[in-house]
Design goal:
It is a single chain. With 58 residues, the protein is an alpha+beta fold. It has a single domain, classed as Rubrerythrin, domain 2 (Single Sheet). Helix content is 43%, strand content 17%. It contains 3 helices and 3 strands, in the order αββαβα. A hairpin with a 5-residue loop joins strand 1 and strand 2. The protein is elongated, with a radius of gyration of 12 Å. The structure holds zinc ion.
Amino acid sequence: MAKFKEAEQRKIKGIFVCKRCKAKQRTSPIKVVLKSVKCRSCGGKSFRALRKIKVSGK
Ligand SMILES: [Zn+2]
């Protein structure tokens, strides 16, 4: 059961949303921190975790 929880956490952590166009992008958190991730639709480099969007979007 612990394995499932871990997998779920990884799933959430692996998805980031572009701050500019809100496009979802699956990448590793390390890449986001290092800003080596580029948005496919707008080319922006600022991302945030999908979970944060859900909380602030309420
Ligand atoms: Zn974008």
